[in-house]
Amino acid sequence: MTWEWDFDREGVHHGHYFQDDYEAAKRDFTVRSNLVPKGALFEPEQLTEIYRALAFVREQDETLSCGRDQELAELMDQVGGLLPPTTAST
Q1: Are 32 and 2 spatial neighbours (Cβ–Cβ below 8 Å)?
Q2: Burial (CB count within 10 angstroms: exposed 0-12, middle 13-18, buried 19+), residue 13
Q3: Are residues 28 and 53 in the same domain?
C-alpha cells in the first residue's frame, strides 16, 4: 500500500491499496513520487504487444541478418522478463 497526502500536506490518509500486487505498488509509487514520468513506463498490455511484434518480425522477415535476429531475440528476452511467465509465451 502507498499513502496519499491530505489536503494541507500535513499528514497522510487512505492510500493506494494493491493487495499482493507488489509490482503495481512500485509503479504507483515511482510515478506519484515523480521518480519516473508516467509516459516513460509501458503498461503490461503494451509490453505484450511489443513482445508479439518482435516475435512476428523474427518469424516473418526472411531478410533479417543473423546479427539483427540476435538483437531482436535479446530485446524479446528483455521485454519478456518484464511480463508474467504465461504472457510472454502466448
Answers
A1: yes
A2: exposed
A3: no
57 lies in the same domain as 30: no
For residues 9 and 45, what is the distance between their CA atoms, to the nearest angstrom? 34
- Model confidence over 29-87: pLDDT tens digits? 888 888 888 888 888 899 999 999 999 999 999 999 999 999 999 999 999 998 876 65
pTM of the model: 0.62
Domain of 71 in residue numbering reads as: 44-88
The string of DSSP codes covering 20-77 is T-HHHHHHHHHHHTTSS-GGGS--HHHHHHHHHHHHHHHHH-TT--HHHHHHHHHHHH
Q: Which three cell numbers stand for residue 21?
A: 500486487
* Structural domains of the chain, count: 2
Residues 48 and 31 in one domain: no
